[in-house]
Design a protein that fits this description.
Blueprint: H1 7-16, H2 19-31, H3 35-44, H4 59-64, H5 72-83, H6 98-101, H7 105-113, H8 128-134, H9 140-147, H10 162-168, H11 172-180
Helix pairs in contact: 2-3, 3-5, 7-9, 8-9, 8-10, 10-11
Keywords: ANK repeat, Repeat, Signal
InterPro entries: Ankyrin_rpt, Ankyrin_rpt-contain_sf
Signal peptide: 1-19
């Protein structure tokens, strides 16, 4: 069960906050799937949709990162944030984009349709495929990235490919998937 922002807490933050506190409140509301809170904050200040917190994480990073289960409201929040200026290519600390951290194929598909680069790299040169291989939430996002045409043989700055990472983690199901899509 998701936690819910109370209107009293929201009203306090909304009326008494500076820009960084408002951004943090929006991040938390996005992360928790609080659509009504997100829309109220953004409609009052459109520039906040693309704000970044202390480590560069945006509200879009918050909602796509996964909080146990994807619900319809999450997709609505993603669309709303993007419609109101959120950057699908925003890089947080370490160069991590929203596409790098989502475990959900529906979100992968939505982000790519809205302009996310399938082969965007973080500061280490790792792509979303590599993050998906390291994710313990199964293979659904990995499969979607591959279906959409992500580069299966990209190597990061350490010379590792997604296949190398899958082998090192003994993720045989992911090794099979990667090989099916041409990993060498």
């Amino acid at each position: 069960m998701r936690r819910t922002f109370s209107l009293i807490i929201f009203a306090f933050f909304f009326s008494n906050s500076n820009a960084s506190e408002l951004c943090e409140t929006l991040y938390r509301a996005s992360e928790l799937g609080e659509y009504n809170t997100v829309t109220e904050i953004v409609s009052s200040n459109l520039s906040v949709a693309s704000c970044a917190g202390k480590w560069g994480y945006t509200p879009l990073h918050g909602v796509v990162s996964g909080h146990g289960v994807l619900v319809k409201g999450d997709l609505d929040i993603i669309n709303y944030l993007i419609k109101n200026g959120a950057n699908v290519e925003a890089k947080a600390d370490g160069g991590i984009t929203p596409l790098h951290i989502t475990p959900y194929p529906e979100v992968v598909d939505l982000l790519v349709k809205r302009g996310a680069n399938l082969d965007a790299t973080d500061d280490d040169g790792s792509t979303a495929i590599m993050f998906s291989v390291e994710d313990n939430n199964g293979s659904a996002a990995l499969l979607k990235l591959l279906e959409l045409g992500a580069n299966v043989n990209h190597r990061n700055k350490r010379g590792q490919s997604a296949l190398d990472i899958a082998y090192s983690r003994e993720e045989q199901d992911k090794v099979k998937i990667l090989k099916k899509y041409g990993a060498k």
